[in-house]
Amino acid sequence: MSFSVRIHHMSYKQVSLAAAVAILLCSASPCQTSLAAPAKGPVIDFHAPAGDSSADAVRNDIRTSVEQIQSFFGAPFPDPIHFHMVADRADFDAAVAKFGLSPTQCWMVGMGTADLIVVLSPQAWGKQTCEHDPTNVEATHQLVRHELIHVYHGQLNPTRDFTGVDDLDWFIEGLAVLGSGQLTKDRVEHMQAAVSYGQIPSALSKVWTGPNRYGFAGSLVRYVDQNWGRATTVRLLKARSSAEALSLLGTCEKSLLSGWRAFLMHP
Asked: What pLDDT, on a 0 to 100 scale, did the predictor assign at position 241?
């Protein structure tokens, strides 16, 4: 197993390391680490603000997440991963503006497409975000995996950045929730409590909405994954609309939602 590391200051330097993990400390000036992931993984171009104390932890999360995601889908990332961690909300807004997401809401700390992943540094979460705790290490791991799943998905999807697939949020986000481990016991319990009160989406367009969106979307994709199989889940990565996804599943929206509701009652 080997890693190729390139340190970017004023020019490129390449160093080959034969070992398990390459560690680069970014201190005096902004730098970039490029790592070739193990087991035929992608080159990972990692950018972080100079002196960011969370950079090493995020870099390790990326390596671990890439391995987990490739195991989940059964194949490596098709293309390199370009990961940019930014220092503050202003830099985050600037980085995602070209996707029409700026100004971003307080809960948004990451964005992933085939060719770019942007994450707000956990150092800024305490004062510049809501719904995110920088001291929750596992939640941070899951967030990095969530955004990297969007990257993997984008690299297999014809759009690459999900432009024009607004009605497929239930699958795009649900897949990232499921694959990242964000479908936690706590979220499932909150979702089931809502379901017991009759608060369950009546349409696919409503799945990724409200406070239980993670539980709803993640459990719907888990239902699809368990009933149609992982190979079908992988085939759905190419879908550009709910209609296309439903056609691939050989079902209709009403039947899919009905089956999912029954699945929630007897998981």
From this structure: 97
pLDDT of residue 32: 54
Q: How far apart (Å, rounded) are the C-alpha atoms in residues 102 and 251?
A: 36
Q: What is the pTM of this model?
A: 0.85
List domains and CATH numbers for the chain.
3-156 (3.40.30), 166-265 (no CATH)
Q: Which DSSP state fits 189?
A: H
Mean pLDDT of all residues belonging to the chain: 87
Q: How many CB atoms lie within 10 A of CB 206?
A: 15
Q: Are strands 31-36 and 81-86 parallel, antiparallel or unpaired?
A: unpaired
The shares of helix, strand and coil residues in the chain, as percent rounded to the nearest 5, are 50, 15, 35
Sign of torsion, CA 223 238 170 150?
positive
Residue 174 amino acid letter = G
Q: Are 66 and 77 in contact (CB under 8 A)?
A: yes
User: Among residues 19, 21, 12, 83, which one has the least CA distance to residue 46?
Assistant: 83
Half-sphere exposure in the Cβ direction for 233 (13 Å, CA):
25
The token duo for 20 is 């398990």
How do residues 119-176 score in pLDDT, each as one tens digit? 999 999 999 999 899 899 999 999 999 999 999 999 999 999 999 898 999 999 999 9
Quick check: helix, strand or coil at residue 118?
Answer: strand
